[in-house]
Amino acid sequence: MSRTRDIQLAIPIFLLSGVFLAFCSTAAAQASSGAATFKSKCQLCHGADGAGDTTLGKQLQAANLRSKDVQKKTDAELHKVIHDGNGNMPPFADQLSDDQIAQVIRFVRALGKTAKK
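^ that's the sequence the OP posted. Answer follows.
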């Protein structure tokens, strides 16, 4: 009887562990995808660290994505900037899906957290 109860308790724990691992794998894949998209579309101007401290970034006055001004924007505001462009930044609506833009925004948020340390 004790063994049956142990099995009954172990099954939900096992299932929850699987769900958790799947969620973490998905989140890691999206973060990786956001980083890859950032590298291919944004890094030339904003730099690998998002500071905008590249030759082209300085010429175009690219935003420091780690700054408080950028980090305080809502995800919707950042989405609009990436989608529609802003100032010297071109629009990426024809190059990136909404999901890709969301992944880039998550990556930009991570850059902001890294800068605060």
